[in-house]
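Human: Here is a favour to ask of a fellow structure person. Comparing notes only helps if you start from a blank page. Give me a protein, with the fold worked out from its sequence. Please set it down just below, with no commentary around it:

Assistant:
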Amino acid sequence: MKKGLLLSFCFLILLLVVGYWTKPTREEFLEKAKSKISALAADVSSDPVMVDVVKMQQDYLMMALDKTVHSKDFFFFSVQSFELGDGQFQYVGVFGKFIPLQSDNPLDQFYQDHEKN
């Protein structure tokens, strides 16, 4: 029994140390968000009619993310949050990944009407 408890405690400590060294930063969140928006915009901007509109919208989104993303750094994870017209969105950054804390992920919803066609 004591051996199992000791192993569990060691595993928890190991997880916390790995979590501390792999927690993502605000800059990593911005980079991931911008690359996702750029990839989705590239699909939409293949339509010649939409090129200028998508470029303006993409520039606005990049600027809005730069200004509105706030980061809270905890010991072994971080919380990234930003506010859009639809509300406030938060992500937990842990082990190098970002997990949305709400059911709707706005980064997946940009240009969603184009993906349905």
About this structure: The helical segments are 2-22, 26-44, 51-68, 106-109, 112-116. The chain has a mean pLDDT of 82. The longest strand covers residues 87-94.
